[in-house]
């Protein structure tokens, strides 16, 4: 489980910093990998409403959104939007990041592409504000809902705290850790009975990514699905993205993952090898299967389509064979 925190406060050690840190500590205790992006430290320009994203599915603005933010948003199973209330909404640095996610909105609603992991992705809001009004969090909650919808992430509500102003006040809140623990438990609950499945290929730029996407998309949810490469490439093959877009599945901004990095803190119920038998590393897993996919060295679009369809059929059969999907 990969949990991404988006920290919106301009303060270095303010209240939402404390709130998010406690959340991440509790998520790590439950076995999650976590990472936090600080909106204030990123070079993010505001949206210029060029509408390229709605027509072509990418944002032409060159800053840190494409290299640093989009891939993490795409990879996350859980996104935690942590923000103080500024004039009944999020601070400007975080708002710029959110607005630039119109790119995901364009890919989903204009280009009609689907997020393969939509059944599993969840999002929550962590927030605090200085005053005590009934509607204090209404603006942030609406923004969070629409932001998460663009990312095909289910909004699972928030933990919001009134009368929090000076730094340190949040951490002193008596029920804070208990509230956070409950929320983490609620978010992790759907995965308790699911399987952990890993697809291994040489570069994680094509076969493993397609198999993992099909698994996430066709399975009923609750499984944790990974792909990783023995020698990970820097990017997915452009042909892979195109072949999957023909199936309406959106893999743009996913990155190949290193098997070594993944194995440092994970164990799996099932490992599916997509490369040749002699290349397999010895990995601890309860069960493993080998699908030796015959991938030509130079692959035409037609070759790839055949491989894609073969993989989809194999993945569907695998899902059927799992006890939890019956
Ligand atoms: C520019 C600005 C706008 C704010 N607007 C509001 C507001 O509309 N309502 C409110 O209750 N608190 C408001 N606050 C107070 C913050 O929400 C509060 O101090 C919060 O605890 C700050 O969290 P942080 O330490 O994580 O930055 C505002 C603070 C600033 C600096």
Q: Could you explain the architecture of this structure?
A:
- The protein has two domains: 2-191, 3-Layer(aba) Sandwich (Rossmann fold), CATH 3.40.50.360; 196-325, Response regulator (Rossmann fold, 3-Layer(aba) Sandwich).
- Helices cover 37% and strands 18% of the residues.
- It has helices at 15-29, 52-56, 65-75, 92-99, 102-110, 138-150, 176-188, 207-218, 238-245, 259-263, 301-321; strands at residues 2-7, 33-38, 78-84, 122-128, 154-161, 196-201, 224-229, 268-273, 285-290.
- A five-stranded parallel beta sheet has the order 2-1-3-4-5, with helices on both faces.
- Helix 6 (138-150) links the parallel strand 4 and strand 5.
- Helix 1 (15-29) packs across helix 7 (176-188).
- The two termini are 24 Å apart.
Quick one: CATH class of the largest domain? Alpha Beta
- Poorly predicted regions: none
Helix percent reads 25-40%
Structural class: alpha/beta
List the ligand species. flavin mononucleotide
CATH topology of the largest domain: Rossmann fold
**CATH architecture verdict of the largest domain:** 3-Layer(aba) Sandwich
Number of helices: 11
Main beta-sheet strand count, sense and barrel state: 5 strands, parallel
Order of strands side by side in the largest beta sheet? 2-1-3-4-5
- Mean model confidence by pLDDT: 94
Distance between the termini: 24 Å
What is the CATH H-level superfamily of the largest domain? Flavodoxin domain
- Give the DSSP E fraction (strand runs of 2 or more residues): 15-25%
Radius of gyration: 21 Å
Q: In the residues, how many domains can be counted?
A: 2
Oligomer: single chain
Q: State the shape.
A: globular
What is the string of helix and strand elements? EHEHHEHHEHEHEHEHHEEH
The total of beta strands comes to 9
């Amino acid at each position: 489980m990969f949990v991404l925190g988006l920290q919106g406060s301009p303060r270095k050690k303010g209240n939402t910093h404390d709130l998010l840190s406690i959340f991440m500590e509790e998520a790590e205790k439950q076995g999650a990998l976590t990472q936090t992006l600080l909106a204030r430290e990123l070079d993010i320009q505001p949206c210029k409403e060029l509408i390229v994203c709605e027509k072509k599915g990418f944002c032409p603005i060159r800053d840190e959104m494409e290299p640093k933010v989009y891939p993490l948003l795409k990879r996350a199973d859980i996104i935690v939007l942590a923000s103080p209330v500024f004039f009944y909404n999020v601070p400007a640095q975080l708002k710029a990041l959110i607005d630039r996610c119109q790119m995901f909105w364009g890919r989903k609603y204009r280009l009609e592409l689907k997020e393969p992991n939509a059944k599993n992705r969840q999002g929550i809001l962590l927030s605090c504000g200085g005053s005590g009004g009934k509607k204090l969090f209404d603006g942030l909650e609406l923004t969070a809902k629409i932001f998460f919808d663009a990312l095909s992430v289910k909004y699972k509500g928030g933990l919001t705290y009134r009368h929090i102003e000076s730094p340190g006040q949040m951490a002193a809140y008596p029920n804070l850790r208990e509230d956070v623990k409950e929320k983490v438990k609620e978010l992790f609950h759907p995965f308790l009975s699911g399987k952990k499945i890993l697809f291994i290929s040489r570069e994680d730029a094509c076969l493993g990514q397609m198999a993992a996407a099909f698994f996430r998309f066709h399975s009923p949810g609750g499984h944790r699905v990974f792909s990783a490469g023995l020698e990970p490439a820097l990017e997915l093959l452009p042909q892979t993205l195109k072949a999957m877009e023909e199936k309406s599945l959106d893999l743009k901004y996913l990155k190949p993952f290193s098997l070594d990095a993944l194995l440092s803190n994970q164990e799996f119920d099932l490992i599916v090898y997509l490369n040749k038998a002699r290349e397999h590393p010895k990995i601890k897993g309860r069960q493993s299967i080998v699908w030796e996919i015959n991938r030509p060295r130079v692959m035409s679009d037609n070759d790839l389509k055949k491989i894609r369809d073969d993989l989809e059929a194999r993945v569907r059969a695998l899902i059927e064979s799992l006890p939890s999907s019956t």
